[in-house]
Design a protein that fits this description.
Elements (H helix, E strand, L loop, with lengths): L1 H4 L6 E7 L14 H14 L3 E5 L12 H17 L3 E5 L3 H9 L4 E4 L6 H10 L2 E5 L22 H18 L7 E4 L8 H9 L1 H8 L4 E2 L20 H13 L4 E4 L2 H14 L3
Parallel strand pairs: 1-2, 1-8, 2-3, 3-4, 4-5, 5-6, 7-8
Helix pairs in contact: 2-3, 3-4, 4-5, 6-8, 9-10
């Protein structure tokens, strides 16, 4: 996935397309298939290396969406993105959804459950697809809020997250997913409070070193970014989101998952050019 998606900036930009009514930042904006397909076209034109399509919100308190409803939302969008020549990932923890979307042209699964269901790993392995395994604890429905995870929930947040993620990666490999097909996401904001998420981002180079596979970061518009602007709504967090992406890329991250594709691409490209790379 990454070999084909990486560009001269040295990091792949994954553009987010939430085909949902209730995602934390842009829920409902792209729920209609036509709107979602137009968003795909826009992100490709803006320079997205990967298009990440999802039909189930993972915000705190979000209820699980049945597979058939997810597919009703996303399948035509995935087909459209694949026809456009995009590298497509399907954001789902459901094996049935993953299988149908891979058949429709997706090359990767973005799993925000940390492989809660082994059938998802088996689906990825049989299709020889890639998988982004995101660290989390529990389900979105069980999460009380972005900032409410206890300070004592981790002894050493970087080490604990990497060890727990490695156990999920081992489960994936046990059902045939090859190591080269696995990408790690530390799950900023998922079962982590703002302090824990900020430490993970600040020490992302340690995460890259510890897991030994490509790392993806999704900081875009998340609530922990209000550390630098307490009153900022998700739509008002562009500056902090771009800074997080540029920092992560500099520290060795392979994928940045973002809402604002053009602005992030510009920042990454200019930073790399100014650095003489």
């Amino acid at each position: 996935m990454l070999d084909g998606a990486r560009t001269m900036r040295g990091v792949a930009v994954m553009g987010i397309c939430n085909v949902t009514p209730d995602s934390f930042s842009d829920g409902g904006r792209y729920l209609a298939v036509d709107a979602a397909c137009a968003r795909v076209d826009e992100m490709v034109a803006e320079g997205a290396d990967i298009v990440d399509v999802g039909g189930e919100s993972t915000r705190p308190g979000a209820a699980e969406v049945p597979a058939d409803e997810q597919l009703r939302r996303v399948l035509d969008v995935v087909r459209h993105a694949a026809v456009r020549g995009a590298c497509v990932s399907i954001d789902t923890a459901d094996a049935k959804v993953a299988a149908a979307c891979i058949d429709a042209g997706a090359c990767a699964v973005n799993d925000a459950s940390c492989l809660r269901d082994m059938a998802l790993g088996e689906t990825v392995a049989s299709a020889r697809a890639a998988i982004v395994l995101m660290h989390t604890r529990g389900t979105p429905e069980q999460m009380r809020g972005f900032g409410l995870y206890p300070d004592g929930g981790y002894g050493r947040v970087v080490t604990d997250v990497c060890e727990e993620w490695d156990a999920a990666a081992a489960r994936a490999r046990s059902v045939g997913v090859i190591r080269e097909a696995i990408v790690m996401d530390p799950g900023l904001g998922f079962a982590k409070n703002p302090r824990q998420s900020m430490e993970l981002l600040a020490r992302i180079a340690d995460v890259v070193r510890l897991v030994g596979v490509p790392v993806a970061i999704g900081a875009s518009r998340k609530s922990f970014l209000t550390a630098v602007d307490a009153s900022a709504t998700p739509a008002d967090r562009l500056g902090a989101s771009i800074a997080a992406a540029v920092y992560a890329a500099r520290e060795g991250v392979s994928v940045v998952r973002v809402h604002d594709v053009r602005a992030t691409r510009q920042a990454l490209d200019l930073t790399r050019r100014l650095g003489g790379e």
